Amino acid sequence: MKGNSPYVRWAWEVLESFIIKGVYPEIPDFLPEELTTKRAGCFVTLHKKNGDLRGCIGTVLPTKGTLAEEIRDNAIASATRDPRFSPLSKDELDSIIISVDILSEPEECSKEDLDPKKYGVIVEKDWRRGVLLPDLPEVDTVEKQLRIVLIKAGISSGEDFKIFRFTANRYY
Fold first, then answer.
1. CATH code (residue 149)
2. Which contacts of 46-52 are long-range, i.e. CB under 8 A and separated by 24 or more positions?
3. How many CA atoms lie within 13 A of 106 on its CB side?
4. What is the rounded CA–CA span in Å between residue 56 and residue 81?
5. Is residue 128 domain-shared with residue 92, that is, in the same domain?
6. Do 115 and 93 share a domain, yes or no?
7. 122-138 pLDDT, tens digit each
8. In the chain, is it the N or the C terminus that has fewer CB atoms within a 10 Å radius of its CB?
9. Helix (H, G, I), strand (E, B), or coil: what is residue 27?
10. Transmembrane region positions (predicted)?
11. How far apart are CA 163 and CA 11, in angstroms?
C-alpha cells in the first residue's frame, strides 16, 4: 500500500524515482497546497513489513523552503544515509512501509511535562543532541523515553541537559 496521505504518497514517489530510476525528483506542480506552502520539521521512517526498522531520518525544525522539499530530502536520506543500515535496494522497495511524522515546533520543558505517547523528546547538552519521536512501540514510560534519547545523544543521565518536547502527526 502506498499510503493515503499526500505526505506518504509524495515520499513513495520520491523513493521510487530515486531508488528505481536514480533521479532526484523536482517538486511537481500537482502536489497539494499543504506540501508546497507549509514549512515544518518532519521525519520519514521506513519499516520492513514485519515491523523492523529499516531507516529513519528527519529534521526537528524546517530546513527547506517547503514541506515537500523536507519530505523529499528526508525520504532519500532515510533510504540511503541512515548510518544504522545499508542503502535501500530496488529489490527491497516493495517490502517497505513508509510513515511520515510532521512535527510541531519544540518547546523547552521539564521531565514532568513529558508523556511518551503524546510528546516526542529532544535532549541537548553543548553540541550533543538526541531526538526520539512520540508514541513508539515499547516506549511506555518517561524514564524509558529519556534513557533511550540520552543514549542517542551520548549524554549521561547525571549531566545537566535541556529537555524539549514536540508533538507529531504520523501518517502511513
1. 3.30.1490.150
2. 46/78, 46/79, 46/88, 46/96, 46/97, 46/98, 47/96, 47/97, 47/99, 48/95, 48/96, 48/97, 49/95, 49/96, 49/97, 51/137
3. 24
4. 9
5. no
6. no
7. 999 999 999 999 999 99
8. N
9. coil
10. none
11. 30
List Cβ neighbours of 137 (8 Å cut-off, separation of 6 or more). 51
Largest CA distance in the chain: 51
- Domain membership of residue 66 as a residue range: 6-103
Domain annotation covers residue 85? yes
Q: At what angle do helices 6-15 and 67-80 cross, to 10 degrees?
A: 50
- Which set of grid coordinates corresponds to residue 131? 531526538
Q: How many domains does the chain have?
A: 2
What is the residue type of 164?
A: F
In this structure, are 19 and 58 located in the same domain?
yes
Looking at the structure, tell me whether residues 37 and 83 fall in a common domain.
yes
C-alpha cell recorded at residue 2: 502506498
- Are 112 and 76 found together in one domain? no
State pLDDT tens for residues 15-69.
Answer: 999 999 999 999 999 999 999 999 999 999 999 999 999 999 999 999 999 999 9
User: What is the value of pTM for the model shown?
Assistant: 0.95
